[in-house]
Specification:
The complex is a heterodimer of chains A (129) and B (419). With 129 residues, chain A is of the alpha+beta class. Chain A has two domains: 45 residues, no CATH class; 62 residues, Roll (CPE0013-like fold), CATH 3.10.530. Helices cover 16% and strands 35% of the residues of chain A. Chain A has two helices and ten strands; from the N terminus they run βββαββββαβββ. Chain A has a five-stranded mixed beta sheet, with no helix packed on it. In chain A, a hairpin with a 5-residue loop joins strand 5 and strand 6. In chain B, helix 1 packs parallel to helix 3. In chain B, the strands form seven sheets. In chain B, strands 1, 2, 5, 6, 7, 8 and 20 form a seven-stranded mixed beta sheet that branches. A five-stranded parallel beta sheet of chain B has the order 11-18-12-13-14. In chain B, strands 23-21-28-25-26 form a five-stranded mixed beta sheet, with no helix packed on it. The longest helix of chain B is centred in the C-terminal third of the chain and has 21 residues. The complex binds flavin-adenine dinucleotide and iron/sulfur cluster. The site of flavin-adenine dinucleotide (FAD) has 38 residues of chain B, from helix 1, strand 3, strand 6, helix 5 and helix 8.
Chain lengths: 129, 419
């Protein structure tokens, strides 16, 4: 039996988890304040996964970049490859929050979606920088 | 002079939550004034996830969290005046604002809620000698350039201070292809949330130098090199410990301070421990009818608490608009042993709120302690605490019956667990 201390990264509560591992299997998790903590501990001990957040270029929008987020976790060891792909994305305003920007990134089954809505830039809008 | 029932200064998460709550409490005439071109505040640049687990049971990115509140405000027909800066507030609630369409305007409000957010401690606030080259930014500035304007500020980066924005920027710049050489923290412990230590530094093998600081910068036009030194327990540099790193960018993440210019000018009493206004259990400041919430009251690490507290402040303002100020004279909620601040820090024993959540922070990291809330010598409540960190805001709940009729100030303190 092996015991491991982990920090759950799922939310800012940052719960301290104590994980018991037996023959490469997680047998118990404690210290989590919610079920997400348990699920986190289980994947963290096998192959860590993270939510990826970044931005993509957007044309015609009120800003130059659009924040995007992976719909669910992707393996940590694929994050840099995912960034490479996302960098090539081209998006046009308007965009609605949740719109799919890139489907099934790197074959992970996870979509990259818009993290906010962004209106088109209009010239009559004096609020522009 | 134009009149408005309630003016909210600032349209970030605090201001939006306060506006929504005022409307829900039957206050119809609500005006939010925001200096930026869109509502949402600091959240618009916090594109990482981890917002809203308490409020929405989902983990959202900052902009998505803000958007939910903007939609709620829109549905309730909250008026939001954008590109408009409040330039002055008086104790009798005259709000002066400026924008390009109306020029300078004065409005009389029955109630004002300050939701102005915070600012970052600049380079001038710390001790770094050397030249004044380009390439030195506060972490929040760099975050705005990158996440909203789409510009990278540099390629080889060093970060001073382990505040959350610095940690988040360490990861963000790494993802964008920059090399983050390290993070130096003056204190022997990190100031950031444990999750950010893990997912922003450890995940990318970025070294954290505790009890270290940046003592000198070099470079003519652009930053070229920094000098890092170790510090002793009194935070004095240790001679001979100098290390040099070639970098083109230094990010400062050395603390956030409530934005308090307007409040200061209005003569509102400030709390030296939070650097924000002193508020009572209704979130009212020392000036009648002026309330405060969000990072402009004290710096938060969780937006859910910002929204929640702002809602409490709005309920306080709604009650004030109906019934006036609470009755009697207030008593204080004081910082006891190891407690660096308490918010709210006043309550009315003759007219207590139904339930009061006191938010507080501890001075140093501690294990297995006990939280004690007492009034004079009378212990109101004790609570075991497994782990206490200065970076994590704690709470202590007081019920009406706990506060009613008290004659002595309440003290919140941390003590050793009696075995
Ligand atoms: C970098 C960073 C990362 C964070 N990460 C997380 C996280 O992962 N999870 C989480 O839950 N929380 C996080 N937080 C905390 C949380 O998001 C913030 O504390 C919260 O959004 C602050 O809201 P606010 O409304 O008080 O301030 P702000 O969002 O700063 O809003 C204040 C608004 O007031 C306006 N204003 C100021 N002065 C004037 C004036 N004179 N006239 C008109 N308008 C004015 C400003 O333009 C601004 O829009 C983070 C905070 C920061 C800074
Ligand atoms: S266990 Fe749940 S509450 Fe604790 S950090 Fe993880 S997600 Fe947050």
């Amino acid at each position: 039996m092996m015991e491991k201390e982990l920090i759950c990264v799922n939310c800012p509560m940052s719960c301290r988890l104590t994980v018991q591992i037996e023959e490469n299997k997680v047998v118990s998790v404690s210290g989590n304040s919610c079920p997400r903590g348990k699920a986190y501990a289980e994947t963290e001990c096998i192959r860590p996964e993270r939510i990826l957040t970044t931005t993509v270029r957007i044309t015609g929008g009120i800003h130059r970049v659009l924040p995007v987020i992976s719909e669910s976790e992707i393996p940590l060891d694929r994050i840099m490859d995912a960034m490479e792909l996302i960098r090539s994305a081209q998006v046009k305003a308007p965009v609605q929050v949740g719109d799919v920007i890139m489907e099934n990134i790197l074959g992970t089954g996870v979509n990259i979606v818009a993290a906010r809505s962004m209106d088109k830039f209009s010239c009559s809008d004096t609020s522009q920088k | 002079m134009k009149k408005v029932q309630a003016i909210i200064i600032g349209g970030g998460s605090a201001g939006l939550s306060a506006a929504v709550t005022l409307k829900k409490n039957g206050i119809e005439d609500v005006l939010v004034i925001e200096k930026d071109e869109e509502p949402g505040g600091i959240l618009e640049q916090c594109i990482h996830n981890g917002f809203g687990l308490q409020t929405f049971q989902e983990q959202l990115s900052g902009p998505a969290y803000a958007e939910r509140f903007v939609r709620m405000a829109e549905e309730l027909n909250v008026r939001i005046l954008l590109n408009t800066t409040v330039t002055k507030l008086t104790a009798d609630r005259v709000v002066e604002y400026v924008n390009s369409e109306e020029g300078a305007v004065q409005v009389q409000a029955d109630a004002v809620i300050l939701a102005v957010g915070c600012y970052e401690r600049p380079r001038g606030g710390i001790n770094i000698t050397g030249t004044r080259p380009a390439g030195i930014y506060t972490a929040g500035q760099a975050q705005r350039y990158l996440n909203i304007d789409g510009y990278m500020v540099g390629k080889r980066v060093f970060i001073l201070g382990s505040g959350d924005i610095g940690l988040i920027m360490a990861r963000r710049m790494t993802l964008e292809g920059a090399k983050v050489i390290g993070v130096a923290e003056l204190m022997p412990y990190s100031n950031g949330l444990p999750r950010n230590m893990k997912q922003c530094l450890e995940d990318f093998d970025i070294p954290l130098y505790l009890s270290h600081t940046v003592s000198k910068v070099f470079g003519k036009d652009r930053l070229e090199k920094i000098e890092m030194v170790a510090v002793d327990e009194n935070r004095n540099p240790i001679a001979g410990s100098e290390q040099y790193f070639d970098v083109d960018t230094l990010l400062l993440s050395v603390g956030l301070i409530p934005e308090n210019h307007l409040a200061d000018h209005a003569g509102i009493r400030m709390d030296p421990s939070t650097k924000g206004p002193v508020v009572d259990d209704r979130y009212m400041t020392s000036e009648e009818g002026i309330f405060a919430c969000g990072n402009g009251l004290h710096v938060h690490d969780l937006v859910d608490y910002v929204s929640l507290q702002a809602a409490r402040a709005a309920e306080g303002a709604a009650a004030y608009l109906r019934n006036g100020s609470p009755k009697g004279t207030p008593l204080c909620i004081k910082n006891g042993n190891q407690v660096s601040y308490c918010v709210p820090s006043q309550f009315y024993p003759e007219d207590p709120a139904e339930k009061l959540t006191v938010y507080f922070r501890v001075r140093t990291p501690m294990d297995n302690q006990q939280l004690v809330i007492r009034s004079g010598d009378k212990v109101i409540r004790t609570l075991k605490k497994r782990k206490l960190l200065p970076s994590v805001m704690e709470e202590a709940v007081l019920l009406k019956k706990d506060m009613e009729g008290l004659t002595e100030d309440i003290t919140v303190e941390i003590t050793e667990v009696a075995s």
